[in-house]
């Protein structure tokens, strides 16, 4: 089976409107979480969130209406494609796998208001809500004629999209694909996530003893996934090898977590098997690490089960206290952070980590980015994602 | 392919035949003829599944029924012994849009603190597939696909790929869309395509595994089938109405069940 590589990356998120800015702020230990300004936060468990700030859609040359989530997705794709050196016409036949939890959340709310007021909804507004809108819009703008689909697997969607693109390349369905996730903050989603009590009333503190929930946000992350043969033929930069992946489901409960972490353990094991990689070779894990009581403990238990005695020596970090939990974008943003970590030999920190939880007890790279450029430089890394409904995804990445 | 479970306005579809639990809205046995409405008027989940549910969106209920019918058609018990290698993929255009709308309307009326956690958790695009995974104990490959009318076929193709690439040994896959009041407002019927609804699922498994367990009437599946099935959408729409994300899965079933051997 031919090797699959990553040749381009793009993002729009609370930490930055492009990958260099995102990475610089992430490594500096900054957080993009701040008071939410775009909507009325009355009644939410937390009035703060990960809002994208300073984004200018006019920069992308479309004067028509386009839902903000689709704008984020297109902007991230635009950066990723340019980063990969794919010019006009180069995406003919390329695949596109996007993912979202809520589609165009803002358009959804407008559409509901319109339906309630008049009993009918403008067809164009409605299209902007649909899950596939960002993919359709991006494919049209970038003149992509290859296979196209949108995945909605809750907050594991981003990792799942990257993996599906990998499979398309393995099967020869295309030689290049762009893949990632996107979501916009809307009151319709925040209200539900708040009432489910997944939102922290104060800070997101992954793996900390005092963790009490996550903080949600918005954005998009997109990667260019390509066969190594295609990348080498056109002299493209190779940031990482996408060795393998897996997706599964806890088959346990719609909202309650699988407390023992069996699903996450299984998905990491399956991903390593797909990548033909031993757990002994894993040098870094970018965790789902939401900062909720149950996720972080379950993920820690799963990592311990997969890595065995080595678990305590393998650094594990969560970037969600910095980026916020950007829903379907999270898996793609975290894959980008993982790739940059492998490229720079610099691990992003788990910020807001103050008090170790004795039940967790892994090396969570607390608060300060870590230089790992010495002999122990990680060559293989995992990026984990999980989501409501019991979904899990794991992507195995290797330094080029 | 070792099993089909289709819940449609014209009755149930299976690979191995058997009693029709569905009923066309004209009161006939649902086989053939024209029907005025493409709604599955007499649908009752308990006709397909014994377990009781507190709350279900119609889309999720149809998906559960379609999956139960497909698993029964393939003579596969649930939960499966090899749960980690038994996956599910599902295509839908709008998923649980009725519950999404109800959740949002209630939230705007009562404020955020009055929002319903039950409705919210049942409002995701991936709620139907997650409920199916839980109900049937499917812990393997898992994804919901949204690609308009092609959603169901995208799910079937992904399941086929998952087996070919070793992600799974057995897959339940298909599409679902419900005809609900909200869908009728957001995507009103056009003169050429009245809204319909359906859940159509297939059981795919490694040929060797199917043979080993003595599965009856196995249809081989190859890439060409997807191409052929995708040409059937117009025919299917005339018979079943606009079944949204289930349409291409329904077209696949129609093609597989009616083609020359």
Uncertain segments of chain B are 19-34
CATH architecture label name of the largest domain in chain A: 3-Layer(aba) Sandwich
Roughly how much helix do the residues of chain A carry, as a percent range? 25-40%
Secondary structure category of chain A: alpha/beta
The counted number of beta strands of chain A is 14
Q: In what range is the share of β-strand residues of chain A?
A: 15-25%
Order of helices and strands of chain A: EHEEHEHHHEHEHEHEHEHEHHEEEE
Q: pLDDT average of chain A, as an integer?
A: 96
3D shape of chain B: globular
Radius of gyration of chain B: 17 Å
Give the neighbour order of strands across the main sheet of chain B: 2-1-6-5-3-4
What's the total number of strands of chain B? 6
Q: Can you list the strand order of the major beta sheet of chain A?
A: 5-4-6-7-1-8-14-13-9-10
Main beta-sheet strand count, sense and barrel state of chain A: 10 strands, mixed
Shape of chain A: globular
Strand fraction band of chain B?
A: 5-15%
Which quaternary structure do these chains form? heterodimer
Question: Could you explain how this protein is built, in words?
Answer:
The complex is a heterodimer of chains A (400) and B (261). Helices cover 33% and strands 19% of the residues of chain A. With 400 residues, chain A is an alpha/beta fold. Chain A folds into 2 domains: 4-233, Thiolase/Chalcone synthase (Peroxisomal Thiolase, Chain A, domain 1), CATH 3.40.47; 246-398, Peroxisomal Thiolase, Chain A, domain 1 (3-Layer(aba) Sandwich). A 10-stranded mixed sheet of chain A has the order 5-4-6-7-1-8-14-13-9-10, sandwiched between helices. In chain A, β13 and β14 (391-398) form a beta hairpin. The radius of gyration of chain A is 19 Å and the shape is globular. The mean pLDDT of chain A is 96. Chain B is 38% helix and 14% strand. Mean pLDDT of chain B is 88; it is low at 19-34. β5 (148-151) of chain A pairs antiparallel with β4 of chain B.
